Amino acid sequence: MFDPKLISRRRMLFESYLGLGGLAFAGIASAAGSRGNPLSPKPRHFAAKAKSCIFLFMEGGVSQMELFEHKPALLKYAGQRMPQARGTTGEIATFSAAPNRVIPPVAPLRQHGQSGRWITDLMPSLASTVDDLAFVHGVKVDNNNHGPAVYHSLTGNQFPGSASIGAWVTYGLGTENQDLPGFIVLGDHRGSTIGGAGVWGNGFLPAAYQGTIFRNGAAPIVDLNRPAAISASDQRSELDLLKWFNEEHSGARTNTSELEARIASYELAFRMQSKAPELVDLSKESEATRKLYGLDDPIAEPFGRQCLMARRMVERGVRYVLCLHGAGGDRWDDHGDVQGRVPKHCREVDKGVAGLIKDLKSRGLLEETLVVWASEMGRTPFDNNLVTDKPGRDHNQYGLVVWMAGGSVKAGSTFGETDEFSVRAAEDPIPLRDVHATLLQLLGLDQDRLTFLHAGRYKKLTDIGGRVIKEIIA
Which residue stretches of 317-366 are H helix? Predict the structure, then answer.
């Protein structure tokens, strides 16, 4: 017999009426995703080569006709007014109908590799990898403004509060390395991205799936290192006591996602004190490797370091790494002076991105790593500010170019095409959710099975569903 005054609600449910209450409770707990380690590796929905993903996000709106799209019309009509764009609405339709002047690309584009892919002369390193890449042209995002477009690109929804791609992937697959976060963010050293932590947040998913941002330097995570006055054994004892209190509190409740994430984060932080310093220590990387990523070039070094760190992370079993480039006045938001700004952006990322592809491939890691390049939008072929001698390009939600490499990506392939002025898709626009559906597919996740019940509705990254772009899958 037991004293009824001392039993918990959970024990009462399990011991009353043949334990049927306990079965109901177990269902509630399962639905809430509670109990156990939420980041333990999980089975895929179907077989896939890629085990991890490195997402390279260029904030500000990369000019597709500057980097990836050869459009002779931009040279033919340079300085003239462009014909009004067809099949567009909102700002793009207004911009194209207003006085404007067509701007030619700042540097020539040439064909490279067996695939004959057009790449700007400003990215010679990337040009040497084109036969490993698969391009998607004419991708449409749902908003022509940076904030909503960044959210849409990185969370599948243009409004704050949704789960980021990295959160969805770690929710679906967990992570292979339990001593490091499953989802790591490498931010631009010059400042934060538009949207801040919301673009790598967990949204409505359990808190354990949010991204962990790493900063530059020997201490990548704030307050990670143990104070000198506290020994490892003392810290372990404190954590054990804290864990006991938290689990006692959690045991009497059902909706404990935030608390369980906090418990897990304390334990992970303790393990990371020995693992994270080794991870960010690049001193053992060879000079050849450092040069491959551009670490010998002060302009290329910051993003090259991010790319090298990303390789080290997936090499150690981290599931998803988000590398951010562009902050403040150094974003790819070139409303003016494309002649001066675009070459600078390209030099900052060219060696790092190409080095990542080549290094992964040489180590046999490219086949099990999905690499994605994206921005939140493309740019217009024309300039609306006719009074300046340093023209720039405006926002274009219809002209995004995305490329992927690794895993089961069909190397050297292309899907989609934009019109002669690179304004929009030549035929039907490609919704961004199609890109997200393809990313999940390449990681072995079915967009329709990767769901989470929130506010009475089963949420998913692709919302109403996307078409998997099979044309770029081998």
Answer: 338-362
